[in-house]
Amino acid sequence: MTQTRAKAVNLLQELGQSAVGVREWVVTESLDSRKGDVIVENGLFENQAAFEEFRASEAHLEAGKFMQEIADWLVGDYLEHQK
Asked: How far apart are CA 40 and CA 12, in angstroms?
């Protein structure tokens, strides 16, 4: 793992640990290295308000700045509906 990729993984892991209202947080690398360096981040928040607070946090903004410098990325946010 390159130093830049390791820094990205660590930064994203710490981001989830410091966020309020996180129910689940997973940061991992893709199993298929043929697709290049792919980091997967998946977070589950207690509610929409917790998610919005996280998105506006300084930690999230700083992590986003770093990722913009190194990543060619796709990001998606979604609501998981309770059954």
From this structure: 10
